[in-house]
Every structure is written in C-alpha cells, then in structure tokens.
Design a protein that fits this description.
about 200 residues, mainly beta, Immunoglobulin-like, five-stranded mixed β-sheet, three-stranded antiparallel β-sheet, 2 helices, 10 strands, about 5% helix
Length: about 200
Amino acid sequence: MNIKNFSMRWATRSVRPAAVAGMALAALGVSACGSGEAREGQASSYLIVERLVMADEGGAPFESDVVSDDGIFEDGAVATLSAAMRDVTNPNGPTTNNRITINRYRVTFRRSDGRKEPGVDVPYAFDGAVTATVGPGDSVTIPFVMVRIQAKLEAPLAALRFHGGALAISTIADVTFYGRDQAGREVMVTGSTSVNFADWAG
C-alpha cells in the first residue's frame, strides 16, 4: 500500500461519488468564521478566518477517504485568513508592527453527539507548522494538513476501511491558527468545518 504526501494527492485526486448515498452527512455545513478567540490577547490587530475549504474539492462538508485504490493519503485543506485593527477609530492607521505572522496551527476533532475521545470516537488532535504574514486590510491563503496519514492507520478510522465496523464517522474539525504581531504579542483564531470519514470508494 503506497503512502504519498498530500501535495501529490491534491494534484491527482479525483472527486469520487459519495458511496454512502442518502446519508445525512452533507447536512453538516462549513463554519469558517472566527470564534471569540479571535479577539483574545493584547495585540492591536487580530485575525479573521475568511474561508476554510478542502484543497482539491473546495466543497463542504469535507469527504475524507480512509483508503483508496492507489493508497492512503493525507487530506489537505486551505485557509484564507485576514487581519484587522481592534481600534478602527485610530487616525494614524496600521503600521508594520500590526502585521501578524502565523507560525503554527492545531486541529482537533469532535462529534455533534458530544463524543470526542481521541483514538476511540475521533482521530487524535495534532499540531502543524506554517509560516505566513498578513497585515490589516489584507488576506493570505495558507495550505495545511487537515487529516494526517497516521489518523487513517489508527482507530477509529482504520475500522472504516473496506466498510468494516461503522459505515461512516461524521466530525467537526476545529482548526486554530496561532501567531504574533511584529511586537511579539500573541494572536489566535479558530475556524470550524465538518469532516466526514468513510471508505468512499469501497
């Protein structure tokens, strides 16, 4: 079984018809707006999640295939983040100190029924590194890994392969981006989206 990185996967993956037709998986939509965490901290500028989509499909919800004919692949996603000033009445406007450099992200999974034990109900949470800088009034697009290869080799996703065990697992992924403005003050923002796991091509 071949394991390839998600950048190759984005270029080669074709969208497969849903193998679990009629299920209520598509009822969960994408929520990519910034949470209350967007305004935490002491920085004079803050981040906003404008968009959160799957890298090679661009639709919602995400359909994560736990295994395909040509191997197991990471699932990539793309986030569009913008920045804004807290004090919109400041006559001096933003400066270079207000630019925010994003340096990492964290993905956690939960289910709408409240079950969220990692390795039992949902995949394990993980951290990843990214680097991007955005200033107030601008936006930046950041590619990142939404579902790791490891997750598809571990419980509970491994049980979905070849339609073993449960037919599908529907989750909500919370993606938090962390960074600092140019004065070193920390900034963070969270976006959420639905991720539905199944052996879509099986």
